[in-house]
Amino acid sequence: MKALRRPLVRGVAVVVVLDFPTGYAYLGEELPARWGVSREALFDQATRNLTARNKGQLRCSGDGEARVLGVGELDGYDAVRILTPGLRKAAAGLLGDPFRAAIPNRDFLVMWGRGNAQLAAQASANARRDFEAQPYPISPLILEVWADGRIGEVH
Length: 155
Prior knowledge:
Number of domains: 2
Structural class: alpha+beta
Radius of gyration: 16 Å
Shape: globular
Distance between the termini: 34 Å
Number of strands: 10
């Protein structure tokens, strides 16, 4: 079975899963047609489900240009929470719009403003290290994220 996926940035795709008390299962490419729904409807519902699951564990350290935000739900979905509109809007309100983010593994989402070059360099090094060392790696890339949902790679 090929998993239902949507590209996010280079080397990263979003997949839809069914979450069970003892694990999860990837939705297959064939399911939208079999269920009579669009691919976008499934991704939209998955985002709404993730939003409903949020407990508001947005952590903040520092202030001004040194402010860093992190998500700490620790449920295997921290990185993908960058797709939830409420979190993006809250982060943009604290960090500026757009802001930067890293998702080196599934249990890690860190965000910071664009104005601090030293913080950006440190975050980039940390993202690469965590991507290489931690389980469930996603990407060492630094992302630029807008409150309106656009997400791109910082070059």
